[in-house]
Amino acid sequence: MWLGNVYYKIQNMTRVFIANSAVKERSALRLLLLNLQMEVVGAASEWPVVIANVPVTNPDILLVDWEILPADPAAQLSALRQACPNPFFVLLTSYLDARQQAAISTGADAFISKFEAPNRLADRLLVIAKSLDVWNDTGHPNHLKTKETTMNKDVLEGQWKQIRGKARAWWGKLTDSDLDRVAGKFEVLVGLLQERYGYTREQAANEVEQRVSDYEAALEEKNRELASKPR
Prior knowledge:
two-stranded antiparallel sheet; 231 residues; alpha/beta; globular
């Protein structure tokens, strides 16, 4: 099945729990997930209901709207992760630039802007679902992607001169000296993000993955627009 620029071969149906207080958004997400051949195992519009039902349904992915989180999101997600450690936590945010660091700092595994085009949202969810097919030796899902990670590493290294300027805007805590050290190396950048932002390795790697994927998608869109213009 082709969807956007991601090819996903269905192996096991991915089980998803939706936590969203907006009825229309919840319905749209349910329809999107069903179209992706993912199973919606539960939905809730209030956080206490999420806390009560996620450990029971034990989904592969917990899709949480930022607006549903209580005033102490980090503590709440940490408590939920202790009660149900297996799901991959994805936060849906309204304002990507303003909330991305806060979304990651809550302890989620990834964040996605709600303003993504449906095909981009589908791409993100499929990449996450695909990564859940790989299990590490502890019995928990290995959330770090393989093929997609390799592709993004190649993009990061091969186009570092172009990406470097954007990296300062993406990660304001990185200095010019830090970026000189990175020189397009994925692991060096991940290590610096851990050091400067206090991320886990997984959080830092997910952040780099998402940024490079967005950069590549924007570049492809720009190239398509240029190619479509009459000469």
